[in-house]
Amino acid sequence: MIIIEGELFGQVKVGESFWHLEDQKTVSVLLTKSDERRNWWKSLVKGGPEIDTQKVEPEPSRLGDLDPELRSTVEKMMFDQRQKEMSRPTSDEIQQQELLKKFDFSKMKRVDKFSNMA
């Protein structure tokens, strides 16, 4: 069974896009756009029916209905989005900063890449 057929209107972040089955009959798909500006797409797929953004009403959040793993992922994505809006580091960037703080650069050996060129 084909759920979405055609070329998507824009690029998506595959690693940040998810699907899950609701009530054993509805497939819910979350596509995270690669476009940082999060502009509305004219349609889901190129050449598909246009989306009237004036009629779009966001569905109320029901994080409690999600399984724990998916809920954790969605909460992380929401946190990261809020951080980006405030020009603050995302959860992955915070984790990288913490790792760098633990690393002792004073024990590193300096390598001069031009020393063997004579």
SSE ordering: EEHH
| Order of strands in the sheet with most strands | 1-2
Beta-strand content: 5-15%
Count of DSSP H/I helices: 2
The residue fraction in helices comes out at 25-40%
User: N- to C-terminal separation?
Assistant: 65 Å
Oligomer: single chain
**From the alpha-carbon coordinates, what is the Rg to the nearest angstrom?**
21 Å
- From the spread of the alpha carbons, the general shape counts as elongated
Extract low-pLDDT stretches.
none
**Kindly state the mean pLDDT as a whole number?**
83
Report the structural category. Answer: alpha+beta
Major beta sheet summary: 2 strands, antiparallel
Number of strands: 2
InterPro entries: CS_dom, HSP20-like_chaperone, NudC_fam
Domain CS: 2-33
GO molecular function: unfolded protein binding
Pfam families: CS
Description:
There is one protein chain. The model has no long low-confidence stretch (mean pLDDT 83). It contains 2 helices and 2 strands, in the order ββαα. The longest helix has 18 residues, at 68-85. It starts with 17 loop residues before the first strand and ends in a 16-residue tail after the last helix. Strand 1 and strand 2 (26-30) form a beta hairpin. The protein has a two-stranded antiparallel ribbon. Helix content is 25%, strand content 8%. InterPro entries: CS_dom (IPR007052), HSP20-like_chaperone (IPR008978), NudC_fam (IPR037898). This is CS domain-containing protein. One of its GO terms (cellular component) is cytoplasm. GO terms for molecular function: unfolded protein binding.
